[in-house]
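A reminder before we start the practical. When you read a complex entry, don't treat the lines as separate problems. The point of joint prediction is that each chain is placed relative to the others, so the output describes one connected object in space. Small molecules and nucleic acid strands, if listed, are placed in the same frame. In the example below there are two entries. Take a minute to note the order of the lines before looking further.
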Amino acid sequence: QKEVEQDPGPLSVPEGAIVSLNCTYSNSAFQYFMWYRQYSRKGPELLMYTYSSGNKEDGRFTAQVDKSSKYISLFIRDSQPSDSATYLCAMPFEETSGSRLTFGEGTQLTVNP
Amino acid sequence: KAGVTQTPRYLIKTRGQQVTLSCSPISGHRSVSWYQQTPGQGLQFLFEYFSETQRNKGNFPGRFSGRQFSNSRSEMNVSTLELGDSALYLCASSSLDRATDTQYFGPGTRLTVL
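Here is the predicted structure of the whole assembly.
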């Protein structure tokens, strides 16, 4: 079983729609939660970063964490064609041997004008 | 500030060959991590280097190796290439050695093994 599960999609929505992207995780030691966005032929870039349960807003983006259910979400309001990308959830983790980021598989999103 | 650069951007090799990929981190960053990205598995952690020392290694066979130089530049090497090694190899740098630090990714090297 993967530590982080994410529906790879693809997800296609019309411009202006509300988009919901989700990940579940199994490792209770994960305490920090990140969302990365990856455009075609580019490396991922950090979009949002949250620690506590609850919601965090940044413009049109809202990250939601439910640690009791081991479930995180990213909502995009008023989606734009420029939001078309792959969205990856990621969880940083410190081990005795060092640190690592564990990623979900990524959800490919297309916003149609 | 220049971003993370990776060379080459594209590479085609045949089975059994070996390959070396290069990564130059953002100036001042001392931590470099490598990831393999494939359609079925997503991004998988390969290894992390900080100040020329490998701090952590993912679950990959010994054919995958890496190193970091005193200027923080890093290379990864894959020997005896297999078809399944075809992937996008991403390098990321961060200023410190904590997993919670923001990692800045390069554009990746697309490796195709024939």
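Discuss with your neighbour: DSSP finds no helices and eleven strands in chain A. What might explain this?
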